[in-house]
Amino acid sequence: MDTNFAENIKKLREKHSLTQEAVAESLEVSELDVYRWEAARSRPGYKMIAKIADFYDVTVESLFAGEADENNKPAASDKISFNCKICGGDLVYNYPDGTCRCENCRNKWVIAELYPKYARVMATIIKANKILDTKTDLASADEADLLFRQAIEECSRFSDMLSTELIKLCEEGQAKAEQLEIYCRGKHFFDNKAYKSAVIELQKVRGFRDADEMLKRCKRGI
User: Which residues of the chain are under the pLDDT cut of 50?
Assistant: First the structure.
């Protein structure tokens, strides 16, 4: 959980001499929600984060900034927006394919074009996801994992909500890469009729691709 966000919203509340109860009432949430956010036990969704930024009259990016970044105002081209620049509607981000779309007017943008500093990260993530969707060998699983690691390292240079979401996406991608690796080992054993070894591996990735079907066939072959 991002501790910068938790620390920053607590500092802002205390700066304005507000209680958690008062903040909760203003944001139309429970006092427990505010407590959990400030304790870094949970984090609100995009719309609520934008609402919190508006409430304190700060940028969304500043809510995620560390102490070293608090006085560095982001350039206009770097600001992360959750509203359509055409109609003002809510933007829905599709991180895996690197795009976002307005819920209202349905206009679509490429994230890398909206936020150039993330162009390389988005290209790396898209490449890694494509590998996971199309390849079925151990080398590809390792390559995807490496790409996600590179993207995480790149995102760690920034301190805004988009970097937080992309890191989370990369971590999910690494988990899928690990699943692919296990699946590939199981399939290798299956293809070589080493059914007992195949079962051990494939049971770890039930529901992944055709692992369940191979498990059925393994049990018939044992």
Answer: 68-78
Model pTM score = 0.62
Distance CA 214, CA 191 (A): 10
Residue 212 tokens, joined:
């369940």
Q: Residues near 120 by Cβ (< 8 Å), separated by ≥ 6?
A: 154
> How far is residue 31's CA from residue 21's CA, in Å, rounded to a whole number?
5
Nearest to 91 by CA among 108, 79, 74: 108
Neighbour tally for 24: CB within 10 Å: 17
Digit-coded pLDDT (tens) for 43-58: 888 778 888 988 888 8
Is residue 183 within 8 A of residue 208, CB to CB? The reply is: yes
What is the SS3 assignment for 90?
Answer: strand
Q: Which pairs count as long-range contacts for 9-17, CB under 8 Å and 24+ apart, including other chains?
A: 9/37, 9/38, 9/52, 9/56, 9/63, 10/38, 12/56, 12/58, 13/38, 16/56
The dihedral over CA atoms of 149, 151, 152, 155, expressed in degrees to the nearest 10, equals 160
Distance CA 15, CA 3 (A): 18
